[in-house]
Amino acid sequence: MLSPYGLDIIESCFTCKLRADRIFCDLPTSALQAFEGIKYASAYPKGAVLFVEGQAPRGIFVLCKGRVKLSICSTDGKTLILKIAEPGEVLGLSATVSGKAYELTAETIDPCQVNFVKREDFLRFLHEHSDACFRVAEQLSDKYNTACHEIRALGLSHSAAEKLAKLLLEWSSRNGEAAKTEPRVKLALTHEEIAQMIGTSRETVTRLFAELKKRQIVNAKGSTLVIRNKAALKALASN
Amino acid sequence: MLSPYGLDIIESCFTCKLRADRIFCDLPTSALQAFEGIKYASAYPKGAVLFVEGQAPRGIFVLCKGRVKLSICSTDGKTLILKIAEPGEVLGLSATVSGKAYELTAETIDPCQVNFVKREDFLRFLHEHSDACFRVAEQLSDKYNTACHEIRALGLSHSAAEKLAKLLLEWSSRNGEAAKTEPRVKLALTHEEIAQMIGTSRETVTRLFAELKKRQIVNAKGSTLVIRNKAALKALASN
DNA sequence: ATCTGCCTGTGATATGGGTCACAGCACGGA
DNA sequence: TCCGTGCTGTGACCCATATCACAGGCAGAT
Fold first, then answer.
1. Helix (H) or strand (E) run with residue B79 in it
2. Crossing angle for the helix pair B230-237 and B160-174, nearest 10 degrees?
3. Dihedrals φ, ψ of B216, to 5°?
4. B152–A80 C-beta distance less than 8 A
5. Which residues, in sequence order, are CB contacts of A72 under 8 Å at separation 6+?
6. Distance (Å, rounded) from C-alpha B35 to C-alpha B64?
7. A3-6: long-range contacts at Cβ-Cβ below 8 A with a sequence spacing of 24 or more?
8. For the whole model, what pTM was predicted?
9. Confidence (pLDDT) at A134
10. For A100, how many CA atoms within 13 A lie in the half-sphere containing its CB?
């Protein structure tokens, strides 16, 4: 098969080595077989838009490879990035289930491989495979959970510094770096994007980073950030 | 049967007249029968706490009567009210499904009737009744949807006035009052609580209401608020 | 009728951070 | 090598809103 956008396409879910540790993908054989029959494997370049906030739901997108930026956007152009979706996540799920419009916009930030399933096929699939339906409920619970975290971070912090500290700590807890005394975080986003994640302005992010560096709390090594003083960062995060 | 806290207890879901218009409750007979077998009907006074943020999930609470305040709370005591749940809503659902801690606190603000189902019973029930499982997915989608709205409101508005205007408009669209030229909203909450809903301070809410009244945009009739100038309120909401 | 607690209303003050404006820098394309 | 484009860094300014402090009002308890 062709490898567009420099991707190694995963042909079938059955041969996918990563299936086991993905909440949705690790289905019993019969369900997986049915899923294979209705999915369309496809690849997208960096910057492609899977769906836009407000659109009627066409179906779900199972992210196999690459990262996808999920954001909402106000009428005046301001953007809030909700999260960066990682492989294994099912995108557009809640809209597809409920039939309401997509509540956010999904845009690839890497070359991505995606399995698309049309809404009517997916709904039929769910009704016929109750174990898959339960996985969907689990995925949705998960999404709801992270949404609640986001709400807490946005609504209950007094300062931008607090939100940034929270974000950095969360990032470091992703890669299993959290346990180390000096966790490292790969900064794959621009200050602008970080600002959009914590609902502040680009300049404020720049200033906050300058402050953190001055106080020796973090330290930049190229595009990697070293957290030198985890305790101080935690103190900032919970105030 | 006794009627504690002045409630007329709904004995059985089968005889409940309100069942039809509730997403979760309107189950096929076989599922409903099974549900009857595992639920515990109970009543709570005003101010009772159903569960607390951070607790391990004991099970779900189907709200039959009364209203429940759902909130999250920061370490320093600041509270953010996410929503006021109305009858028909299933509380503690996502935590019960995923097994993670309850992500928020649920506290009754009226005398309430509630059907409680233990986690293990509920999970078994879901696996045995795929139609119920699908309803759960729908409920969760709904919750996710409102969470996204909350995030938008919190993260993308520049002023407290904007958030208050949004809240008032949303309230008026609940009771079917939205269509009227001068919708009425019952103000069942204190300024303090409203402040906690839009993430601002009590004083700011008081001042904002004063401003709205001065500009003849709203008008207080006892504890009922009359929206005299819907257009102006909408203009405030989207800026 | 009085007290006590919760709610609303309003002034004074301080400040976090949004916004504008511009400068320096890195990196890729021609 | 030079240029353009997008990112980062920083100063100046100002406004919305948090916070503190207190006064009046209303309602339920004694």
1. strand B79-85
2. 130
3. 60, 25
4. yes
5. A53, A79, A80, A82, A103, A104, A105, B148, B151, B152, B155, B156
6. 14
7. A4/A43, A4/A45, A5/A43, A5/A44, A5/A45, A5/A46, A5/A111, A6/A111
8. 0.91
9. 94
10. 16
Q: Is the CB of A196 under 7 A from strand C?
A: no
DSSP string, B112-177: EEEEEEEHHHHHHHHHH-HHHHHHHHHHHHHHHHHHHHHHHHHHH-S-HHHHHHHHHHHHHHHTT-
Q: How far apart are CA A104 and CA B227, in angstroms?
A: 30
Across chain A, what does the average pLDDT equal?
Answer: 91
- Whose CA is closest to B92, among B143, B150, B44? B143
Q: For residue A102, count CB atoms less than 10 angstroms from its CB and return exposed for 0-12, middle for 13-18, buried for 19 or more.
A: buried
Can you read off the two tokens belonging to residue A132? 């898959």
Candidates A134, A159, A163, A194, partner chain B, best to mutate (most B CBs within 10 A): A134
- Nucleotides of strand C lying closer than 7 angstroms to a protein CB: 6-12, 16-21
User: Which of B80, B127, B143 minimises the CB distance to A144?
Assistant: B143
A30-33: long-range contacts, CB 8 A cutoff, minimum separation 24: A30/A129, A31/A125, A31/A129, A31/A131, A31/A132
How far does the CA of residue A12 sit from the closest CA of chain B (Å)? Answer: 26
Number of C-beta neighbours around residue A180 at 10 A = 12
Q: How many contacts, defined by CB atoms under 8 Å, are there between A and B? A: 132
Alpha carbons A120 and B236: distance in angstroms, whole number: 39
Cβ atoms of B164 and B217 within 8 Å: the answer is no
What pLDDT, in 10s, does the model give residues B14-52? 888 888 878 888 899 999 999 999 999 999 988 899 999
pLDDT by 10s per residue, chain B, length 239 = 445 566 667 778 888 888 887 888 889 999 999 999 999 999 998 889 999 999 999 999 999 989 999 999 988 888 999 999 999 999 999 999 999 999 999 999 888 999 999 999 999 999 999 999 999 999 999 999 999 999 999 999 999 999 999 999 999 998 777 778 889 998 889 999 999 999 999 999 999 999 999 999 999 888 899 999 999 999 999 86
Tokens of B137: 């997915």
